[in-house]
Amino acid sequence: MSDRTLTYGQAFSEAIRLEMEADPNVFIAGEDVGAHGGVFHTFDGVQSEFGERRAVDTPISEQAIIGLGVGAAVTGLRPIVDLMFMDFSLVAADQIVNQAAKLKYMFGGEAKLPMVITTHGGAGLSAAAQHSQSLEALFCHIPGLQVVFPSNAYDVKGLMASAILEDNPVLFVLHKRMLGLKGPVPEGRYTVPLGQAMVTREGSDVTVVSWGRTHNEALAAAETLAGEGVQVEVIDLRTLSPLDTATVVASVKKTNRVVVAHEAVRFGGFGAEVAAQIQEEAFDYLDAPVGRVGAPFSPVPFTPALENLYVPDAARIAESVRAALARPLLG
Amino acid sequence: MSDRTLTYGQAFSEAIRLEMEADPNVFIAGEDVGAHGGVFHTFDGVQSEFGERRAVDTPISEQAIIGLGVGAAVTGLRPIVDLMFMDFSLVAADQIVNQAAKLKYMFGGEAKLPMVITTHGGAGLSAAAQHSQSLEALFCHIPGLQVVFPSNAYDVKGLMASAILEDNPVLFVLHKRMLGLKGPVPEGRYTVPLGQAMVTREGSDVTVVSWGRTHNEALAAAETLAGEGVQVEVIDLRTLSPLDTATVVASVKKTNRVVVAHEAVRFGGFGAEVAAQIQEEAFDYLDAPVGRVGAPFSPVPFTPALENLYVPDAARIAESVRAALARPLLG
Amino acid sequence: MELTPAQQLAMHKSMVRIRLFEEAAGKLMETGQMPGFLHLYVGQEAVAVGVCEALRVDDYITSTHRGHGHLVAKGGDLAKMMAELMGKATGYCGGKGGSMHINDLSLGMLGANGIVGAGVPIAVGAGFRNKYLGSDQVAVAFFGDASTNIGAFHEAANMACALHLPVVFVCEHNMYGEYTPTEKAMAIADVVDRAAGYGMPGVIVDGMDVLAVHEATLEAVARARRGEGPALVEAKTYRFYNHHGIQTLGVKYRPDAEVIAWKERDPIFTFEDRLVEGGVASRDQIEEQWAQVRADIAAAIEFAENSPYPEPSALLAGVYTAGGAK
Amino acid sequence: MELTPAQQLAMHKSMVRIRLFEEAAGKLMETGQMPGFLHLYVGQEAVAVGVCEALRVDDYITSTHRGHGHLVAKGGDLAKMMAELMGKATGYCGGKGGSMHINDLSLGMLGANGIVGAGVPIAVGAGFRNKYLGSDQVAVAFFGDASTNIGAFHEAANMACALHLPVVFVCEHNMYGEYTPTEKAMAIADVVDRAAGYGMPGVIVDGMDVLAVHEATLEAVARARRGEGPALVEAKTYRFYNHHGIQTLGVKYRPDAEVIAWKERDPIFTFEDRLVEGGVASRDQIEEQWAQVRADIAAAIEFAENSPYPEPSALLAGVYTAGGAK
Ligand SMILES: Cc1ncc(C[n+]2csc(CCOP(=O)(O)OP(=O)(O)O)c2C)c(N)n1
Ligand SMILES: Cc1ncc(C[n+]2csc(CCOP(=O)(O)OP(=O)(O)O)c2C)c(N)n1
Ligand SMILES: [Mg+2]
Ligand SMILES: [Mg+2]
Predict the structure, then answer these.
(1) Could you tell me if residue B331 is inside a domain?
(2) Best mutation site among A58, A60, A120, A133 for ligand 1, i.e. most ligand atoms within 8 A of its Cβ?
(3) Which atom of ligand 2 lies closest to the CA of D144?
(4) How far apart (Å, rounded) are the C-alpha atoms in residues D307 and B280?
């Protein structure tokens, strides 16, 4: 590992700048991504390095932003198009789901659609119900898309490089509460492959599967539980679609107990898919039901007094792990 | 049961007409729902009975159609707004998810939003990737919405009446391949309560949970399996959100084996939530993993040669049931 | 229709209420007492007030991310607003909505909105309701210049015209959408050029002149009430602070000189000069209004500060309405 | 720029290809040999052909649910089209797309589209690509009159103008969107009235006159190639069959007399009269063209009928592209 550190947000813009240097067909477009460097400054430095031609400020037109990406990608460019807040993906859902995701298949497989849709998800800024959602479950359900949701600066850079180099549409989600989080990031170009989960802490008693900001809560929960004598194995999915079931199942076969934790609403969340697959593939190894931690069934509340209760944290993950462990062995 | 029969589609328009007679604030709006009676004729007779004021043809503007519903509902009317094909819900996703679903909560709970969003989902008409989707999983994940997907004419009428009388936004999905399916439907007003699943065939060996068109495939599979000496209990969820977990879990506790089957893409589908809940609540009763049947991970293909392979049918459900039964008892 | 001195003073007071409410909120945000994003309305007061003075309590409005001014102008309760912005249980949304979802259904204010353009179709729905019920109420959609580039605006404008609904579209053209000058986001200078594409009349008005805004809106509203369909009013205005937060000068995307020039056209101070010059009010009367509002704001802050945060049990309340029309 | 006789005959042939392809497809549908929905282009041939004759092979077009005509006019292979409509493995999309997703990337035809308006932003993306690469290629978006009421159209039109892209917007105004007369869906008669709202020129042209369409498009395309930005061409036209399927007269929403009146202005027959009267072609030459196309269509049908359906293994192929730029 490098001793240079960057923030999660800086790692993102560095990946973009390096890939734009490497390939003249890569460009960024979106609202305020150019002169302003993005509302969260995750595109800082791109326009100053590459100019207005390759760092394009667009009107407030999410459908046309994605459509611009689709049209440019199918004709040979490699667009990175930004949606600012993940909530706005709903404004552009037709272009993402009915166009970008399906175009290649509908066209008989000949087309190539190398585009990255970037966005900022998650709660924690008191931004209320329309600026705080974690909507990854919606897009994981859509064949033709890939969905990435990193938890640290190193992965942000490496996964973003992979996403840009990828020939399929990728939805790349940054968690907006993690943008300032620092971590070691090597200087040059490197990739972290899409579709590979990572065991970020080894343990033998129970597995916690997670991603994004919740993954770091899982690590914190593991630390707490270590103090209680429980060895938690933590897995960061990193890419949600395609799902690296093998890594998850291998861990569960070792620990026999597992909790899936995410920030999104629990009901119908992507954790359900992970849980369903685990019980399908490791049924005989499970000593307790697959636990799931997620947000309760409500929109994200504005006031910190409620938002703090809403967002799943280390304490709730630890609680769910304890419940999984408390379960007596049967038979 | 009445001996009068109506089709699935006729039951729908009858529910609307009866509720419009009962409440002058109920109206319908959408593309071609008025003079033409809807592209699938599921609104036949409404404009001729109630006139253009209460059966409104709109421009092709799905966002504004839902917005019209939201604005009319929050100011006291009871709109029924139509999206024609379920795929078009993606065009209007912001208004459905960020506005209709969340408005009441964001407003502190004071607002009332009695509106029904109607649409026609499902494959089977060679309508290809943008006119054949089953997207219920997307909307089940959204707090504030309710999602209904009936499998027969009786339920269509009763559930639609409930949806119209309900004070919350309801997404009401008709399966477009079932519109001509006849069944007994009583003449007058009646309701089938939202949020209640129904055991449509009793059995002791294995449970199949399903909804919509796939439910009828499940019944067919149960028939086939009965010939093999297997007694399948079939559950029609009818309402997906809120989910009637209790009925499902009670059945699984009796049969100890279960398959969840739906037409939507399996990965990230609503079946994952049902499966995850079953293993959470009936873990000790399960003699086999919860099986899941759904469409493969691709867009819906156009050609019948592939579409027939794509859509889960009775044979695939039966196969999954056999796999669940083949599983030896452990411990 | 001439405005009475009392009406003009009321309009002045309403603008001052917006100004002082916003500046107080800005200060509270600066000192960490106000969570979330604040999009201040300061500079644009003449638009909200000029428009809402042309409305009745039972008329509807929809608003934007920059919505406090619209609620104040529609008669909003400053204490409940301040409490909401602080996330308190006594706020308009019980603390669950915050700045971007503030609303008062009893005043026909159908909500600020965090999604650009999304309020416009909702106003069309309210307009539909008015026509459906045979009422002469109107619905006004407020939206920014840059918001007119989003599909929802277009669909709503067209639908209101196609269905001939009593909706007035009020565009607040403040020359920017976030940090992008609107001239980069559209190839036209005036949003009003879009009105003809829907088949409605449009008018440009000086958004720093409350009387001009009022007059133009009165006409559009009267038309709508008479059942003559929608109209668009474009008010040229300016936000004195940053897109969100309280920075004024020294931002990268707006020349300081531009900000200063617009501030010289402050909608409140220029109106005060006219009131005095026209003999409608004395400087003392005006100062008295400011003092009253200052006291109201202080009381609002006190109310908000002394209010409790919502109980944990509130978290899941209000996702669904119990009951129905059964 | 005068069109040579050869060009005019090519345009005539292209229109005949559309006509006969569509009518053959309609018949096959009627007899159950063609699955799915067919939106026939018959009646509108002059638009696709007039426009595409102004384009180069390397220019891009996006299309609609009513897309066969656009692909034929861009040079599409009738056999691969027919095979696609029949769901065969040899079709343009290997049978996976069908009528609503037919495309030929090698001809710059970026697809029919099942979502109203959704092709328009994609054309803007292709236009962006052209400008980005410094190429003089243009992109044309075809769309229907009623599609201009959807948000995606609006966003795309505005974005093309804001970014000054080489995009030509071609509206085929056939007076209906499905079964709704467009006059009920918009309060304006001419879509061209929307052009000014984006800051682009717009022109109305007789969509039954292939030469008029061609001339208007040539100018818009030349402008775009010169880097002068987008333009809108509105062609007034009519579909001779039902929204989908082959019914002509006796539908509830369109008066028979209206259909008959438009059919009298058949874009092919009126063009033939002009060719003959102008001495450009003889009746025999024209008949010969029909005969050639009839033979092509028969061959296309034979090819399609004799083609296999895709293998089951095709089901999951092509959801993702293997590899990448690594
Ligand atoms: C759909 C959507 N896209 C982007 C945003 C982010 N955003 C919030 S305000 C804003 C600018 C709006 O500009 P304008 O409509 O002119 O209003 P102003 O802020 O100038 O009052 C943007 C881009 C959003 N909230 N919703
Ligand atoms: C988003 C969306 N809404 C509705 C439809 C259904 N639909 C298909 S074609 C059509 C009418 C389109 O009318 P127009 O654009 O005028 O084209 P035309 O059919 O007249 O050629 C409609 C409503 C759709 N495909 N997509
Ligand atoms: Mg603005
Ligand atoms: Mg049309």
Answers:
(1) no
(2) A60
(3) 15
(4) 51
Nearest Cα neighbor of B194 from B167, B220, B231, B159 is B159
Q: Are residues A267 and A321 in the same domain?
A: yes
B32 Cα nearest atom in ligand 2? 23
Touching subunits of C (3+ CB pairs, under 8 Å) are: A, B, D
Residue range(s) defining the domain that contains residue A75 = 5-184
For position A239, which CATH number holds?
3.40.50.920
The reply to whether B178 and B218 lie within a common domain is no
Q: Quickly list H helices, D31-150.
A: 45-52, 68-73, 78-85, 119-132
Q: Cα separation of B102 and C11, whole Å?
A: 33
> Of C190, B266, D167, nearest to A68 (Cα)?
D167
Residue D176 alpha carbon to ligand 4 centre in Å: 4
Residue of A128, A296, A304 with shortest CB distance to C97: A128
Which residue numbers of B are catalytic?
A: 131
Query: What's the structural domain count of chain B?
Result: 2
Cα–Cα separations (whole angstroms), residue C256 to D112, D268, D292: 49, 63, 71
**Are residues B131 and B247 located together in one domain of the fold?**
no
- Region A255-270: mean pLDDT is 98
Based on the fold, state whether residues A175 and A230 are members of the same structural domain.
no
Alpha helix positions (H), chain C: 5-30, 45-52, 68-73, 78-85, 119-132, 151-162, 182-185, 210-225, 256-263, 267-277, 283-306
Interface test with C, best of B58, B106, B189 (most C CBs within 10 A): B106
Confirm if C285 and C10 have CB atoms less than 8 A apart.
no
Instruction: Report yes or no on B89 lying in a domain.
Output: yes
Distance CA B287, CA C51 (A): 68
Share of chain B above pLDDT 90, in %: 97
Which residue's alpha carbon is at the smallest distance from atom 13 of ligand 1? C177
Residues D8 and D225 sit within 8 Å (Cβ to Cβ): no
Asked if D186 and C194 come within 8 Å (Cβ–Cβ), the reply is no
Q: Is A222 among the domain residues? A: yes
Q: Which atom of ligand 1 is nearest to the CA of C146?
A: 16
Final residue in a domain of this structure, among B123, B156, B184: B184
Percent of chain D with pLDDT over 70: 98
Average pLDDT over residues A217-235: 98
Counted across chains B and D, CB pairs separated by less than 8 A come out at 122
A179 lies in the same domain as A206: no
| Sign of the dihedral defined by the CA atoms of residues A238, A243, A247, A250, in that order | positive
Asked whether residue B137 falls in the same domain as residue B256, the answer is no
CA distance B180 to B124: 13
CATH for C5-308 is 3.40.50.970
- The verdict on residue A135 lying in a domain is yes
Q: Scan for tokens 């509203």, then name that residue.
A: C221
pLDDT < 70 positions in chain C: 1, 323-326
- What parts of chain D have a pLDDT lower than 50? none
| Active site members of A | 131
The SS3 assignment for A213 reads helix
User: Which residues of chain C approach chain A closer than 8 Å at the C-beta?
Assistant: 35-37, 87-88, 93, 95-98, 100-101, 113-117, 146-147, 149-152, 177-180, 184-186, 252-253, 309-310, 312, 314-316, 319
Say if the Cβ atoms of A70 and D121 lie within 8 Å: yes
Same domain, B142 and B233: no
Q: Which among D199, D210, D209 has a CA at the least distance from the CA of D169?
A: D199
Contact D270, D208 (CB under 8 A): yes
0.90 surpassed by pTM:
yes
Q: What is the ipTM of this complex?
A: 0.98
For D240, the token pair is 């001779």
Identify the nearest ligand to the CA of C47 by its number.
Answer: 1
Which residue in the set D147, D152, D253 is minimally distant from B36, CB to CB?
D253
CB contact under 8 A, B94 and A91: yes
Looking at the fold, whether A89 and A145 belong to one and the same domain comes out as: yes
The answer for residues whose C-beta is within 8 angstroms of residue B205's C-beta and 6 or more apart is B230, B231, B232, B233, B255, B257, B325
